[in-house]
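NAD(P)-dependent dehydrogenase (Short-subunit alcohol dehydrogenase family): structure tokens wanted.
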Amino acid sequence: MKDKDMYTPDEIKGQTQKIPGKESKMKPQPIYDNNDFKGFERLKGKTAIITGGDSGIGRAVSVAFAKEGCNVVIVYNIADDDANETKKVIESYKGNVLLLKANIKDGTVCKQIIENTINHFGGLDILVNNAAEQHPQTNLEDITDEQLENTFKTNIFSMFYLTRAAVPYLKEGSVVINTSSVTAFRGSKDLIDYSSTKGAVTSFTRSLSANLADKKIRVNQVAPGPIWTPLIPSTFDKEKVDVFGQDTPLKRPGQPVELAETYVFLASDGSTYITGQTIHVNGGEIING
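Answer:
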């Protein structure tokens, strides 16, 4: 796909929806698949869990993994229609997929997700901690205890819960990939709690990579910039949606499909000497970290 095939800021103007956002209600919907690319079996025979795999970046990663021969477990919370659509697309590529509707804020539930995956597919090779929530607030004092706790539970506690439960089943060559954010490195004045969780994700990634290095389990992260996903129209007002992505050097928002190959690379044998690292996919913003 070429840059001209992606949406311009004008094409996404005027969209808002209630939380939680649904991909099925977005117009135009995010681009999550490169139909011209059929895959190279780089993940053949492996099994991956992808949180938030029903939509946005998670959907693009789920489809890309399936096209590479990977069994995919999609963990999602609310959007049954989005999850079933992703399942349908994966099956159109002859992929194997398991949908698990779950609240990953709960440590016991996260343990069950891992157990269900092992029982269904017989193993686990890749864990993609991707699900997140955000709630913009102009003032720090407007961030309630409930918002703070929910954001941290979804964005970072779940990574601890899921990875802790997964490690006993991971073997040499297994991979953990976390989704951080450009906000972890430059902050965001209206997303203080969200940015803080993404900073925690970055520290978690670096520390865990060192911890699991002796087991030959690699841990890396992707730090997206402004990507057109359901999170955007469901959490930003019309004015912010209208200019979303225009402040990047490429002058447009990114599409989920533009991140998918990054996750495939980090999950594959093409990145066997990479651990504890961040790959920035942000439209050209220079970030130190």
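The CA atoms of residues 64 and 134 lie 25 Å apart. The chain has nine helices and seven strands.

Cheers.
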